[in-house]
Every structure is written in C-alpha cells, then in structure tokens.
C-alpha cells in the first residue's frame, strides 16, 4: 500500500470512529419499543388477532335467525284467446299481466344437534390461538431485536479493540522508521511493521463493514429508514440467576408454541362434537309477511291484492349416507389423538432445548470469567512489551506476537459475552419470559 492510499484509509477510519462517537445513542428499551410499535410482522399478526376477535359472535356460529327482505315482480305481454264454459270467446292482442310480491322473510335453525354451540366454542378457541400466535411473533421479534442489539455492542467493543491495536501499529511503524533513519534497524523491520499495520487496517475496515450491515438489519426490524444512524450501549449485561427448574415450569405455562398446541387439541375435540351433531335432526322455523298484487287485462279477476302472515316448520335427519358419518367421526378421533401426540412432542422438545441451552449458558458464563482473566493477562503483557519496545529492548516479532495475543484475547472475551447473552435470551424466549434483559 502506497503512502497516499495509506493516509486515505487512516482518514476513513478516523472519520468512521468519529461518526460512532457523534451518533445518537439508542438504548435497548427504545429499540424494543420501536419494534413493538412499528415492526410489520407484529402489525400483521395484530390485525389477525382483531379479525379472530371479530369472528367470535353468536351470529357467526349460526345461533341467530336470519331476516331478509324479498321483492319480486313479473310482467308479461301476450296475445290471448280464451273460450269460456258458456261458449263465449274472449280475445285480446297485447294483453298485459303483472305480478308483484314483497315482504320480510325469517329463517331460523333452532336445533342442529348442538353443532352451533360447538362452532361458537371453536371461534373462541381460534381467538385464543390468534393471541398465542401474536405472542409468538412478539417473542421472536423481541429476540431478534435483542440479539442484533447485543451483536452491535459486541462488534462495537471489537472495533474499539481493533482501533487501539491500529494505534499501536502506527506507533510501531513510526518507531521503526526512526530507528531505520538513524541506522539502528534494517529496512526489513520497517516493511514488516508496514505489513502488520495494513493487516490491522484491513481487519478494522472489515469489522466496521459488518457493524454497518448489522445496523441495517436492526433498522429493518424496527421498521424505520435503514440508513438511520445510531450507536448502542458499550456493555453487555448478562444475567446469572437463571434456574432450570423455574424455566421449565414457566415454559409449561407461557411458551407460545405449547399454548398453541394445547389450543389445537381443544379445537380437535370441538371438531368431533361438530361431526357428531350430524346424527341429530335439523329443525328450522320459517315465517314471513307478504304483500302481493297482480293485474290481468283478460280473465275473471282484473286486479288482485293480498297481504298476510305465513309460517312453517321443517325438520330433516340423516338416515344413511354410505357410512360417511362413521368415517368422519373416526377421522375426528384420530385428529384428537394426533393433537395430543403433537402436544407431547412439543413439550419434550422444549424440555430438551431448555436442558441443552442451560448447559451452554452455564458453560458460557464460565468462559466469560476465564476470558476476562485472560484478557487482563494479555493486556498486562501487551503494556510491558510496549514499554520494552519503546526503549528497543524487545524484538519486533515478539512485540507483534504480544499485540496479536491481546487482540485475540479481546475477541474471545467479547465473543464469550455475546454467546452467553444469546443463550440467556434463548432460555428466556423458550420459557415465555423474554423481556428487556
């Protein structure tokens, strides 16, 4: 890399670092609040919940009567010839006839084998299923937001460490140039320092690129302009008080997937009731009040009008339908069995995930402690080596090794923090207790 390009990269890095400091801070609470208000998946599922709630009505279950207003009119124009019993003949060309009927009509199914009550219960269960799915969407969105937020915190820490390493590499190159000018160092030392500085510059630029991509992803989750600039907090707070037994107990009550499976089991049981209702008769009441008027230019009655109430009762029952009823009931019973198996499967899967994640969580907590201690040792070693390098009592390769060890130790510490936080978030999500941890 020539000197001109090198200065350009250094200027770019300093500019990016300055932007990170000048940007408005976005707290985790603010990010979650924005997601709850703006996220498209949450909005879509919220509308689904409202639709399911609107569908819960006795009319939608078929319990209420239906009243319609009917109107019909018929008109004819014909050439007519009539011979009466007296032998008299009547003939009319273009005779006009009309018939007009209108009035309200009521139809009410008063009994259908209790199927209407089962339908009403199913509508209520579907409302609860919508709410469980909405909760699942909220939990998943919260998990994505929190994961991306702490990913940015982790990357921000890494950028800070890489920037510090870059400052040291610039100091090393300056020191090597000065030593070369007074004849105390070979050109090879300057070239090696330049290569290492370029490597550190590349690593920092790549980390900044990843950081920017993650910011775009978080802005997408918050459903706002993806180029919105912000910075996040500078620390990852890890909870260390999670207890497996409490998480399992909470999951059995609050996990949205488990709640959905339980609701689907109840819906399957209701479906069997609906199928069995076909064994009973259907009874319907119908009534109406009709107004009628008819006119005829030829015939005994030229004009006829009438009005009056009509009412009736109808009933029907399935006697034989090719054993379809028996088949449908058997299939509905199998669906109940499947829903129970699905519930047991999800319960076991959640228990397995909790146990595995809890083990990972405990391991990562221990790794955080170990890597923090290791980072302190690497930092102390780096400081001592740097002082020796300033006075020329340590070889450049030894200095670079100490620098690399410090960078690696910082990366492992940051990664262990992030991994521990991811495990904590996953545990809370499975238990249905995810909040602003």
Automatic annotation (TrEMBL):
It is found in: Cell outer membrane. InterPro entries: OMP_efflux, TolC-like. GO terms for cellular component: cell outer membrane; efflux pump complex. Residues 1-22 form the signal peptide. One of its GO terms (molecular function) is efflux transmembrane transporter activity. Coiled coil: none annotated. Its main location: membrane. It comes from the Bacteria. Belongs to the outer membrane factor (OMF) (TC 1.B.17) family. This is Outer membrane protein TolC. It comes from Daejeonella rubra.
